[in-house]
Write a structure and sequence with these properties.
Radius of gyration: 16 Å
Strand content: under 5%
Structural class: mainly alpha
Mean pLDDT: 89
Number of strands: 0
Number of domains: 1
Distance between the termini: 39 Å
Helix content: 40-55%
Low-confidence stretches: none
């Protein structure tokens, strides 16, 4: 049986800074005011735009659905951009 990785933990921990920088770039392109020095704060802006009362600190009153909408908006945007970049790289290769 394969070992499971903890959610939110990167396979390559040294990539954390690059992932956070990528998150800021992607979310800026999506129209959010993402601070490149604190890209983790974009989740509050995303939550506000979705009408979800996410606040710093404990958010135990949020439903799983609400939390998923915020994370899904951010993660989904990042995945779409990664796919776009990969397709762009593949199209540059000669057959």
């Amino acid at each position: 049986m394969a070992r499971r990785r903890s959610p939110g933990r990167l396979v390559v921990p040294q990539a954390a800074q690059g992932i956070e920088r990528f998150k800021a770039e992607v979310m800026k392109r999506e129209g959010y005011a993402a601070d490149p020095n604190r890209p983790d704060l974009v989740k509050y802006e995303v939550a506000k735009s979705l009408g979800i009362p996410l606040r710093p600190g404990y958010n135990g009153a949020l439903s799983t659905e609400q939390a998923g909408k915020v994370g899904g908006q951010i993660g989904g945007s990042m995945v779409r951009e990664m796919i776009r970049l990969a397709q762009q790289q593949l199209s540059k290769r000669s057959p």
